[in-house]
Structures are given as C-alpha cells and as structure tokens.
Amino acid sequence: MDEDSAGQRLDNFLFRELKGVPKTHIYRIIRSGEVRRNKGRIGADDRVEAGDVLRIPPIRLSERPAEKAAMAVPARTFPIVFEDEAFLALDKPAGVAVHGGSGVSSGVIEQLRRARPQARFLELVHRLDRETSGLLLIAKKKSALKALQDQFRERETGKTYLALVKGRWPERLKVLDQPLHKYLLADGERRVRVVEAGHPDGMRSVTLVKVQRQLPAPPGVGAGSPEGMSLLEVTIKTGRTHQIRVHLAHAGHPIAGDDKYGDFDLNRQLVRTGLRRMFLHAWRLRLTHPVSGEAMELHSELPLELQAWLDS
What we know:
Blueprint: H1 10-17, H2 23-31, E1 36-37, E2 40-41, E3 54-55, H3 66-71, E4 80-83, E5 87-92, H4 108-115, E6 123-124, E7 133-139, H5 142-153, E8 158-166, E9 175-177, E10 180-184, E11 190-194, E12 206-215, E13 229-236, H6 243-250, H7 264-272, E14 280-288, E15 295-299, H8 304-311
Parallel strand pairs: 7-14
Antiparallel strand pairs: 1-2, 1-3, 4-5, 5-7, 6-7, 8-13, 8-14, 9-12, 10-11, 12-13, 14-15
C-alpha cells in the first residue's frame, strides 16, 4: 500500500483498483473474509494504511465492458447547499444510497458523476444511510478529500441530525456513551448492537441528545406511543455505522419509521398518518473549510414530507 492510498476506506480503494469489477462482487468478497489485510480480516469501512499488504482473491472480470455498465447509471442532479472549487454539499433525499453496491446498482456519487461528465474528481467525503436525508459532502479535489476526511476522523466536525422518536425523551438524558458492535445476520445483512464496556469487538460510540420539541401522539397512534413523541437534535461525536438508530433504540426511544431497529407496530400506525419513511435527517454540519481554514456551518432544512407531517 503506497502513501497516496493511505487513509482511504477499503471499499473505495478497491473500487479504484478493480475497475470493471461490480461493486456488489467487491462487497461480497469483503464480507466473506476473502480480502485480508496483513493476514487478518478487514471490513469495508476500515481504512488502509501505508505499508499494508492486501490479499485479494482471483477475480474474473465481467464480460460487459465497464463503459457499458457506466452508461446504465442515470444522470441525476441534487439540490446544492454549498459549492466552491474544493467541495460541494448537497441535500440527499431519503431512499437513495450514497453509492452503488450490496444490491444497489448506483447511488448519489455515480449519478452525480454521470450528470457532471466534465468533473475530473468527485468523491464521497462521508456516508449517510440510504433512508436518511440531508447534508452530504462531495470532494472535488483529492487534497480537499483528505483534509475533510481527516476532520471527520479526528472528530473535528459537528454533525447534528433531527430525529423523531417514540415516547417522551427524558430531558436529563443528554449523553449516550455505549460501545457498538457490527455483526451479520444469516443472510449476510449488516446489523449493529450495543455491547457491554470492555467487549473485545466493541467500538466506543458517543451520541449527544437535545430535545427540540415534545409532541402529542398523532391521532390513531396513541396506543403505539401513549406518551407522545419527541423531536431531537442528535449530535454524533463518533461516526459508527447506524450509531444514532441503535443508541436511540437501545434507550427505549426508537426512531419513527426505522425498519431495522424501530418499533414495527408503531411504524405501521405511522404509515396510516402519512409518515412513510424514517424520520432521520442530517440537519447541520460544522466544519473547517479544507482550503481557506474558515469555520463553516451548513444547514439542510427538513424535507417537505417531514415538515408537512409535523405541521399536520
């Protein structure tokens, strides 16, 4: 592994090195443990470092040329919150993956590249779950990508989400500091759970919670959430997979509409009121500009479908 590749996520590194190999296949060989780093297992979101030795199994390229596969990606533009020569911040809608793979043919980054064929460099700085909407950063220069990813890695950014949860969140509960562990279901789907302190595979995860509004239960869902619901401002100090969803659910207040960690009976009731998605939105992002060093604060207002549901 050379210096230029240091700090990249494994999946991004393999996407670039194994051009023409379907992303679904790359994720499959990572999940199965066929990709090894220094003779040990490595996850898709682990970062490679200079000097690492990667073992990659023999791969047979698809007969379909990579160019033909790229032509199948639809061009799509997204609402832009901020853009300059270094990076852009866009408003990702719910239901769109940030990248292709794991059964998804294409995501935000592939569709944006298709819509901007003249762009020489477009790379994801971070990720959002498919059903989460809101602020997503895309680097337009390699130097900006490294600088922004360094900020995320060193916890120098402030990422705050809006989440609607079941029940009345206790005002005194402001810090969730519980380690998380990733595991796979029998069908290979990824899940995350809270584990006890000292667990060998636990990753320290810190979530800060502030109550923005307490809401009565919508008509028709009183039995599902008799204490009403809470709109929270949730700031993550660590960026673990599904961190907010798992921490809030473990606290007894799952996110409305969460189809993995939520209250499924409540979700069915909420669908009848018009809430047909997970109520989790990347609302505010504080960062330092990767070139000027200027402090920045970006905002993405609630999508119309969420704001309309709250207003109703």
